Amino acid sequence: MIGTRPPTLRGLLLLLVVLAATSNRAWPEPSATPTVTQHDVEAILLRHCTVCHGRRHKEGGLSLLDRKSLLKGGKSGPAIIVRKGTTQEQAAALRSAQTRFDAANNLLQRRIPELTNRLRKQFPTGKAEPASSGLVAHFPLDGPATQVVKDKLSKHDAVYYGPGALKTTSGHGSQDGTPQHGALFLNGSGQHLDAGNHSGFRSDQPFTCSAWIKPADHVGAIITKINEPNDFRGIDFTTNRGLLEVHLVDKWPVNAIKVVPETVRLTTDQWHHVLFSYDGSKKANGVKIYIDGVRAKLKIFFDTLTGSFDTPDPWRIGRRKTSAYYRGSIDDVRIYSRVLDDADVMLLAADNRHLKQALKIAAQKEADRTQTEKETLLQYFVERDDNVSKRKQELQQLKMKPGDSLILKRIRSGHMPPKDNLLNTGTRPLKARDIVRLEEWINSGAPEVALPLETAGGPADPLVDGEDRSYWAFQPPQHITVPEPPAGRVNNRIRNPIDAFVAVRLKEANLEFSPTADRGTLARRACFDLHGLPPSPAQLQRFLDDGRPGAFSRLIDRLLASPRYGERWGRHWLDAVGYADSFGGKLAADHLRPYAWRYRDYVIRAFNADKPYDRFLLEQLAGDELADYSNPAEITQEIYDNLVATGFMRMAPDSTSEREVSFISDRLDVIADQIDIFSSVVLGLTLKCGRCHDHKYDPFPQRDYYRLTAIFKGAFDENDWLKPVGGTEKKYKFGIRRLNIVSTDEKDENDRLQIKINNVQHKVNVEADRLRKGLPEKQKKLGRNELIAHLLKSDKAFKAFADPLLEQVRTLESRRPPAQAIQALWDRGTPSPTYILIRGDHDNPGRVVSPGVPAVLSNPRVPFVVRPPWKGATQTGRRLALARWVTQPEHPLTSRVMINRIWKHHFARGLVASLSNFGQTGFEPTHPGLLDWLAGEFVTRGWRIKAMHRLMMNTTTYCQSSSNKAPHSGPSASQRKDPLNEWFSRMPLKRMEAELVRDTALWVADRLNSSQFGPADPVTVRKDGLVTAKLIGGGWRRSVYLRQRRKEFPTFLSTFDLPSMSPNCIERPESTVATQALYMMNNATIDQLATSFARRIRGEIGEDRDRQIQRAHLLAFSRTADNDELKAGRAALKEFTRHWARHLESVTKTKNRKSAAPASQRALASYCHVLLNSASFLYID
User: Fold this and answer.
1) 179, 894, 1058, 1150: which is deepest, by most CB within 10 A?
2) CATH top-level class for 135-337?
3) CA distance 940 to 649
4) What whole-number distance in Å separates Cα of residue 671 and Cα of residue 602?
5) Angle at the Cα of 892 (from 890 to 896), degrees rounded to 5?
6) pLDDT tens, 1095-1108?
7) Domain locations in the chain?
8) HEC string of 569-588?
């Protein structure tokens, strides 16, 4: 007999002896390696410096990602000085460098007259001002922040719109970073400028748009003139994922130009000059894009423009017509009616103070220049001569000693990382030991050591061997032959192979199947299992009247076809992944996740559609790597689903949302919880101890834990973190983890509604503008919103005209689809290296590991292969490789784990009782052959979960009675020999889960709103801590749609063991405590539902007491009352009627008023309240 208990104490002691005996298995130590290598240094700099000097931010042009970058340095020269060769060789190199510098400098000085003449010819006017020829609009945006933003040409002022006050900030500065003037900051949540139309501009003629921007996000419109959503006709200059995009559109995408720079990405929180021009040719190669004065090489996406993209829409700054709101600073916006040449662009993109000085000196005769002026002019040309600059830098480096390395100077002085910027960047100063190690490495010549060859998972793996892999759960599911059922009475009850497997084990235990449950019980059981609600009287009667063979199968098919199915089984999955409508985390704050509901809706739809489980996992693990969503012609439902599905990897508690910044330890906690969710849900394993040490009992070395985290590092990189956000976000160094993407259908619906809103609002705006002319001069300058507010208070005629229209706008706004954003996960390019953290301490990194799966699960038949998702993809492809690895038919765990959970939800106990632990400390399967046979059937039947329901429910095993007692002799043989029901000798009596109790109470009371999907329903939190759902349209929706914070549970649900998602819940706890009965007896909501229950009965049956009792039992218990229950019901109603009559008479006398409800009605409500408190209501037979 296979054991069904975790290891005994004796077994654990034996296991410890084995572990001690095999403790020599460890990393082979490399020989003759330096004390400190480049890998140690890279790990130190990664934790403290690469926020500002890494892949995305290279302040001062400096990257500190690796040894090569350190040697290259930035604008101030190399970050480290490395000495090579003997003393004599170094002296010779210094002399040679001095000679080369002198030669380059002398050559430049001889060319001063030539260079001066060239400078005068380039700027014949002697002025270094950007060109004004063809300038049709110029918005300096220097402030102050007012409702009207001035056009410097005084043609059309821009008008500010949006929530909140417009803010000013420091504008783009000089080359040394000194602010020169102001700029505007737009918050990305509706703030923008409407700049009007400008005479002299035609979009079918050449033009140029120029601006200085400092983006705080990677997405947003800079300058647009577009008729969105009507064919998107017009001009669109935007940023998308850090890339500039230019769209010139007649009709999208069939008649349009779209170009994007091939490689140059904008860095956030850094000023950039951006410019694009169009030559009027209707060709994509007629578009030029410049970034910081340098023309970018363009990638052409669409080159199909044949018509005109002219539109009467105004110029807009910071948004399209209804979308793509820009977040960040913006400065000095200019629009020209011509194409600017390179010299013009250079002037717009450059700081002109040094150029002005050089032009002033160049205008003088050489003999009239002072020595200081000559040196200033020479310095101007030196700065622009690559040869001299290179030789000068080379000479300076050779004169320096390793201890003079720039990075050491900056660290010692406290400028790296900057003390005044630690909080904003989420970093901490280097520890003394780290500085010592960095100095040691530089002084020893910055040695570079190759990484050891990766052996994980291979035959030479020193940490996992063949014996480790021999455990049953680490072997692929076996191909099982269905056993012959035992002879005797049990043979006649075999309905499908499941019964044969169960019958064999029952025979071994000298047991047999329990009797078949009655039809009403089966209908109630199936409805709760698949819908989470009782059968309606009509459903029940249809099943009872169906006397043909296969009636139960047809009932199951009808239940599986209902949208209620996805709500029930989607809830099981949402438990497993740790779904919550808030971030949770370690701190007291529990901010809402405003877009989490989209993932919840995706899960429900997926279950209703019977999406194959392998595809379901593929989308949730790597939906962003299944298709390029960055530049599609439209966001199809499939692309949308793929992206929303990745919310699976965003469900862990996340305290990095709770503060302005987070630290690496906070981020590692999020990653650890997400790994825990993945491993428990998909693999059925406990891997979280691998964060600090090797697994104590299973062959999962710490190395494999970090190899697994490396798979997710393209998206979850603690050194390159995105802040998870809700609505309006403040400035944040790392950007935000949110995609402003919805399906095209949803966007179209929002756009249609926006057009209606705009049309109605336009009528109000036109009338307000007409009345503006008659106002005093001061009020004429009011912005439009302020003007309308003023007129509503001061002009009765305007108020009578505008109020109905504004009410119409508010009504339309209330119908607007929810915010067009999703909570998703996506790769952001090449991730940082992954280190084994010694004892889980991020300040104590060990060796680097590559991405990979647990070695004990590696198998040539189940390969893990990483490749880019498509040619030219920026995604790593790691998560897609993981998703394909776990969904291979021969994977040891995926199908077994899911089948086991499905079985558990039907039979109250898994074939493996430890649902999330298939390892050696978990339970072994009670029916190993059945588990593997079901796993094989799951795959063979296309990974379809509904097929598994049909297979499991159409069995004698499922249709057994739950009775534990023999008719006259006390406990049955089943209960005596199989007290825990390990052999499934009966069906268990199951207490309803929290949501089932609440939803069923709502259903019997006819107060259940069956509408689906959308944002979570709000709750009310009383001062005493009671959390209740708000009433919506006279009822409440199902509990799966109720807002559930991690630290604020609805009281009804928490009373009945709603689990805490810390980080997830694979198997719910079940308690029976007095507070449950007290809640059901005394809670005002339950009393209200009992009254509604009684009202429903009277409406359906009338006042006949016997029929009321029968109807109440039918609705509450899915059966009619027997004679004893009918008799008890009559007596109860009679007593309740007497009680309420006396009570109402007393109330009438003392308060001199009549009660709204007579005693008979209140008696029925009290009787219904009793039924809601009964075991027959709360338990499923």
Assistant:
1) 894
2) mainly beta
3) 28
4) 23
5) 100
6) 999 999 999 999 99
7) 38-83+401-443, 87-124+356-398, 135-337, 580-740+824-887, 744-814, 994-1055, 1078-1180
8) HHHHHHHHHCCCCECCCCCC
